[in-house]
Design a protein that fits this description.
The chain is of the alpha+beta class. The protein is built from 12 helices and 27 strands. It has helices at 5-11, 42-58, 80-96, 143-152, 170-175, 205-211, 228-237, 257-266, 283-298, 312-321, 341-350, 548-557, and strands at residues 62-67, 99-109, 112-121, 129-137, 182-188, 214-220, 242-248, 271-276, 305-308, 327-332, 364-373, 377-386, 388-390, 394-398, 406-415, 418-420, 422-424, 428-433, 446-448, 459-466, 478-483, 486-495, 505-512, 526-528, 535-538, 542-544, 575-577. One of its GO terms (cellular component) is cytoplasm.
Length: 586
């Protein structure tokens, strides 16, 4: 994996998002100076109000506002009376928008005062901002323990008390190892206070969401190599906004740590690091492990800018620059003594949403799990990728084994176990569906608006980069494809090269083995070949809709040569082809 690092960041680039032009362009040049909040005119006040409203909408109901600093950064600093007047104006603007204004930090310098304020809208109980954080790291790094401490507000006893509250299965409690994808939430109100208050040892998600303006959803993933498939599915199928890489201070970077870091880099998920168990680690061992961590983060494969967070000012600077993906904050915490946990909570409170969705886009929802609830019927859970889905909407569910999409009605909607009337892009939700059996639904299916006219595909093309593989990859090789919530084996039909080895790059033509899937241009994929290293795949891929008969014949003939070694991951983008326009030869 260490040899794979340099290739990741050099080749993986985020695909451009669709631009939405504003209907009317507003000139904000008159409200960009450092003194504009001191005594604004009526026209300036209206422009400031509109500007603040836009920034809050872009941030998903919150924004960080700087006082005493011009937007172009050419001038900064206010006198004390000017600063107080500016704060009063900002508070008035926030109150007009039904938002709270909270001081994050204030800086006194020779040129005057400057400050940063969190402006967060007071949302109703059904419309909280949701941020998803995938928790990864090697086994015994303290992932479940930290989540237990954060969400339940009680410190660990050093013998696994906190993590016992999160385990879902008996064997997890017996072994102390997470084997499934768990979800835990941490709620913040409009002024940034934690609202989690466990009753009799358990959390009431509905009460937390009713009191919260922002909810952090932790996706607790398995650290053991045996459960790598589950971890890869959690990183792709649950669409995390950020990744929290956990490292034990005493053990350092061992086992699956590099693998999980490489997977997050490949999927373009911004990562911050939490070093745990600092209370039991000798100082010299901690410093050696931190030096190794910083060296890896600065390496050509990661190209991160590591920042050790020690003060609240460091938290504000890290949070405001974190979305760029280059910055990598490092926290050092103890789940037993509680050291620096307040800094980590402050950082989580300031995280901003990365997925931007427009309400006028056709709805799209990916399914990552299914249930059969007595008295309710079939229930699906997943992530809303685009648009708005409302109660009683009719969507197309599919593809089925024949590649067809079936109209389905949404009977009820729940967010974090709380009934709601609609969900928007970027939000996770569960739907109760009418007149369909659970056996007819599987992970990887989607629910989309009829306006999208969805098409299932058997084949797709993608440009892949082999980061590490012990042998060679050639035609008829088979790999497990992870794309969103899709998880299915695909066979390589052809490649632009005869064979691929570590470091090679090629255009590859894949075909699904079992049934067609719904994939789109621009999607990234992870290819898992056996048990633990990495292929990265990206750039343009093409998909082809194939008749069912052809698919069945191909399934009978396809044979996969399974290489030895460990698992491989990959990323990829897709562009559709029609049947009349087959894939070009490569």
């Amino acid at each position: 994996m260490s040899g794979a690092g340099p290739i990741i960041s050099q080749t993986i680039a985020r695909l451009p998002e669709k631009e939405h032009e504003s209907v009317s362009i507003v000139d904000y040049s008159s409200v960009r100076g450092k003194n504009v909040l001191v005594s604004p005119s009526e026209d300036q006040y209206e422009l400031l109000l509109r500007r603040l409203r836009e920034r809050i909408q872009d941030g998903g109901s919150e924004t960080i506002f700087e006082i005493g600093i011009a937007e172009d950064g050419t001038e900064s600093g206010l006198k004390e009376d000017e600063y107080e007047a500016s704060v009063a104006t900002l508070q008035s603007l926030a109150a007009t928008l039904e938002a709270d204004c909270v001081l994050l930090r204030q800086i006194k310098a020779d040129h005057g005062l400057t400050g940063q304020y969190l402006v967060r809208r007071r949302l109703d109980r059904q419309d909280f901002l949701e941020i998803r954080v995938a928790v990864v790291g090697n086994v015994d790094a303290g992932k479940s323990t930290l989540l237990g401490v954060l969400t339940h507000g009680e410190l660990d006893n050093g013998r696994g008390l906190a993590r016992q509250k999160l385990f879902r299965h008996k064997h997890e409690a017996e072994t102390g190892r997470t084997s499934s994808v768990g979800n835990d939430i941490l709620g913040f109100d409009s002024v940034g206070n934690v609202v989690n208050k466990p009753e009799h040892g358990s959390l009431d998600w509905v009460k937390i969401c009713e009191k919260s303006s922002k909810v952090i959803t932790f996706i607790d993933l398995a650290g053991h190599e045996r459960y790598l498939k589950t971890t890869v599915f959690g990183m792709t199928g649950h669409a995390p906004d950020f990744g929290m890489l956990m490292i034990g201070a005493n053990a350092g970077i061992v086992g699956m740590t590099k693998e999980h870091l490489g997977l997050a880099l490949a999927l373009s998920v911004p990562v911050f690091v939490v070093v745990t168990k600092i209370d039991m680690c000798p100082p010299n061992v901690l410093q050696e492990n931190l030096k190794l961590l910083i060296r890896i983060l600065k390496s050509p494969g990661c190209r991160k800018v590591p920042v050790t967070v020690k003060t609240p000012d460091d938290v504000v600077i890290s949070a405001t620059n974190f979305v760029s993906e280059r910055l990598c904050p490092i926290f050092q915490v103890s789940n037993v003594s509680g050291e620096n946990l307040s800094l980590l909570k402050m950082f989580l409170n300031l995280l901003t949403a990365r997925i931007t969705s427009h309400d006028d886009e056709p709805a799209e929802y990916q399914i990552d799990d299914t249930y059969s609830v007595p008295g309710v019927g079939t229930v699906v859970s997943g992530t809303t990728l685009k648009g708005i889905i409302r109660l009683n909407d009719t969507l197309l569910l599919g593809p089925d084994p024949l590649g067809r999409f079936t109209p389905i009605a949404v009977k009820s909607i729940h967010r974090k176990r709380m009934p709601v009337r609609e969900v928007r892009g970027g939000q996770t939700a569960s739907f109760a569906l009418k007149k369909i059996k659970r056996s007819h639904i599987r992970k990887g299916m989607v629910m989309v608006a009829p306006a999208l006219n969805p098409q299932a595909c058997w084949e797709f093309e993608g440009e892949i980069l082999v980061l590490h593989h012990p042998t060679t990859i050639s035609s008829r090789y088979q790999a497990m494809v992870h794309c969103g919530s899709i998880r299915q084996t695909a066979s390589i039909l052809s490649m632009s090269q005869d064979c691929l080895r570590t470091g090679d790059k090629a255009l590859v033509h894949f075909r699904f083995i079992k049934h067609p899937e719904y994939i789109k241009p621009g999607q990234r994929m992870a290819l898992e070949i056996t048990e633990a290293d990495s292929i990265i795949e990206e750039q343009t891929a093409k998909q082809e809709n194939m008749p069912q008969k052809s698919g069945l014949n191909q399934n009978k003939k396809s044979r996969g040569r399974r290489g030895g070694g460990r698992s491989h991951n990959a990323i990829n983008s897709i562009q559709p082809l029609t049947e009349q326009n087959p894939p070009a030869k490569v």
